[in-house]
Amino acid sequence: MIIDAALGALENLAAPMRLLFIFFGVLMGLALGAMPGLGGLVGLAILLPFTFDMDPFMAFSIMIGLISVTSTSDTIPSVLFGVPGTAAAQATIMDGHPMAKNGEAGRAFGAAYTASLMGGVFGALILAVSIPVIRPVVLAFGSPEFFMMGMLGISMVAVLSGNAPMKGLIAGAFGLAIGMVGMDPQTGVIRWAYDALYLWDGIPLVPVALGLFALPEVVDLVIKGTSIADVPKDAMKGVWRGIRDAFEHWFLVLRCSAIGVWIGATPGLGASVVDWFAYGHAIQSEKGASESFGKGDVRGVIAPETANNAKEGGALIPTLAFGIPGSASMALLLGAMTIQGLSPGSAMLTKHLDVTFTMIWSLVIANIFGTGICLLFTNALARIALIRIHLIAPIVIGIVFVASFQATSHYGDLWSLLIFGLLGWFMKRFSWPRPPVILGLVLSKIIENYLFLSVTRYDWHWLTRPIVIVIGLLIAVSLFYGFRGALKHRGRNFDGPKPPIRFKFNPGGIFTLIFLAAFTIGVVTATEWEIHARLFPWVIGIPAIVLCLGQLMGDFFGRKKSGEEDTRGMMDLPVDRSVPTSIVIRRAVTTFLWIFGVFGAIFLFGFVVAVPLFVFLYLKLQAGEKLGLSLKTSAAMALLLIVVFHLVLNVPWPESVLPYMEEAILRRVEGIYDWSWAAFS
Amino acid sequence: MMRCMKFVKRSIKYLALIVALGLVVISLPDGAQAASGFNPKRIKILIGFPPAGGHDLEARVIARHLPKYFRGKPSIIVQNMPGAGGKIMGAYIYNRSKPDGTTAAIFGSSQVQENILGAGVEYDVRDMPIVWAVRSVRVGIVRDFLKAKTVKDLATIDPSKIAVAGRSKTDSSCVTGTMALTLLGIKNFKRVCAYAGTAVIRGAVERGEASFFEASDPHFLGQGAFVEMYKKGMVVQMWQSGQVTEDGKIVRAKTVNKNTPTFQEAYRAVHGKDPSGPLWEAFRKVYNDVHSTLTRTLVLPPGTPGNIVNALRENIESMSNDPAFVKDWEKVFGQEFANARVPALEAEKVKDELMKPAPWQDTFKKFVGM
Hints:
By secondary structure, chain A is mainly α. Chain A has 28 helices and 4 strands. Chain B has a 6-stranded mixed beta sheet, sandwiched between helices. In chain B, strands 8-5-9 form a 3-stranded antiparallel beta sheet.
């Protein structure tokens, strides 16, 4: 029966019209994945109303076509600008962007697309073969198992901290702490949100990720003042090398695909952490990875890119079998199923097996289409790395602002972007690993909720559940590998005789002091809350204070000479130290002033006026570009905001102090749009 | 200094150029001005949750059918503004949207409840006219392994086996479920209210992690979350909120199994008398009015002129009688639209009654711990 259904669905999909639908979905998915802050969710929301008039095969082929490939094209901004295209492409930055800087953007793209294709097909395959056993496997995972999965993710902090385990743990604890901001569902206590409604639901991931990674990267590129790539290379030649790399590392691809499926199938984890799981696993298991990762190792691109495409097949498992969406995109797919009169559950694995196989085949076909299209454009894209940074910087900054605003459409998103942008830049400068902050933020609510559910439901008996024990062992192995790597580096810090311990001034220590103050305030404030609300903040906050004190000792009383830094095994993007400090400070201040200027202009005039205005003024005044080029680039930015974000996505722009110009423009644009729509209809 | 002056001069020059461009834009004809009367070019429906939930799908069905009831066939745009359980969207429409009929929002019963509880809410449902409303019927369900066929069985089993599922402490399922069990005299049950949504709760119920859930009738109809489990006998309906008749009586609703008693009947079966007292008064209001009659409402910003409110109500009323709309709505929600529909004025009446200061509100706040 299964084979018949599989063949029947394939025959059905082979019809040119259905293939065209998949192709259309793929094009949409690629465009949305490449635009930071959008992703597949936005596209699915746009498509959803149209599925009323489609049959299930059409509806799911276009929708699956779309979500399958956002994780393929999200590599583009990650590699080129260090800006994560979607949440699932954060880890790709770690080696993809250094590869672009080394003139290997083409190779990074080739490897990423091929790995994405292999991961996507593997995910579909796992989904297909798991159909007969899908339900008991999913049922075996309850709150205790989900909690342990979250803890496994947190254990990756040890790996992602590289040679700075103390800093990594503090950064991870900070991520966990900011993940606790907002309403505690168990007690209803509002934690650290004060009177800001924006913070009630917690700090959203998108502005934090863009702030931590994208803004510091742009600022550093401007400080350097050249193009992204230092060395121009033949991009196309690099693409083939990248494709070969993916095949050569087939076993890594296979392992990361399995990780992708597993994390994708775990509700609540999914896209936000799948790449970090795979990246962390690659560091643990690949030879020499702790030395070369973070500096442009192609395996650091292959691992996350395989996993983030494989996750879609995994996410479909609980979605189809139980109606439990493995991700936000899957929730929309469930919406489409409702519209189509299909209910998830055993019927999808028996009566409607043809629809299920339509989804599986669509996954495979879409991944092939997506990879093919991306490879076609790789040469051109890779050359972007050769364009001078002053031309790219204002565009990237403008897009990052708009992308951040997509999180909750609130000014708070822009504040988060700026605050985490500054934090990220300082973290990078003072060699604090940033990935643990993201891991902590994403996993904080998950582990707290599932721990609460596990204890409330099972008391402490949940600790004896077999899968819990197995995952516990995996965590122990992960921690062992992580800290062993760090200790190895520690022993290598001094080549000659050890210098004596003495006081030294270290500007990085001030940064530690800020963390210490933040944790102390957090712990003290929590004393006012009821026990269940303050328990988790204390469990994280108090050890973090101790760690900060330990780090301070290291900062101010250490063996290393003042200013000396060991970056071996540092699990973050490397900092270019070739530019003199005085120039770094001057250029950083200037760029951050421009960035704060954009925010001010948005507050005064609104997005639609402020962002193109910023692009124009930056190009003309800061970059000294010609008037025509500045005007054209600014107009292109205005067109992007108006057509894509206003007319297609209907973004609710924030209120500004002087909204007249923005309102006038938008009213006229809407008038023209409505008129042409009516004429077309 | 010279460089700085040059920079300022250049800045002024280009800013002047931008201002000139702006003036050109403003001088263009305004094609989007609304015609006289209430004939908007576009209407936005705001949703306080991510796409694909009940609120979102309802708005999309409305957006599909409502335009034809306006002369200018406006574009109806569904805009998701998730955050803080709908509070961010609530604050937005209440404080920022123009009261000109071009913005509406779907409010859920929990947003009305939050207003009653009054915690950190920046909107007041009293000021927001309702132009459309749908009701649902609440249904208390238990897992089969509890071996409770009736509410009398439930009252006698070991309460530690009862694990009430919900999204948060103040979520409708958790609040009404714990109130109902407390009224029945069941104590020391487990309250596992931190699941991420109904779909996740469904999974928890299926694997036996949660054994009690306050569902609603759409969950048992069409493609509802509990249809399959109910058919297989994995979940048993204990009671229902029922439907309030015109004379204020609570009767069994048509959309739920006719053998499922109303909560009053269930209470009588356990205690041998009708429920009474402050907690019952609070429960009745929250269970039957907030979370049943006002399940989902389409509201307008405060201060929307009466003629616009009436125009919208009339057009929505016409849409509600359109078989094409009814077909789409029933396809999505799996129930008869006629059973769910609540006339806007009736919903207004229920809302006004609920929002009048009364002792039951204090009892409710105390129970929830606010």
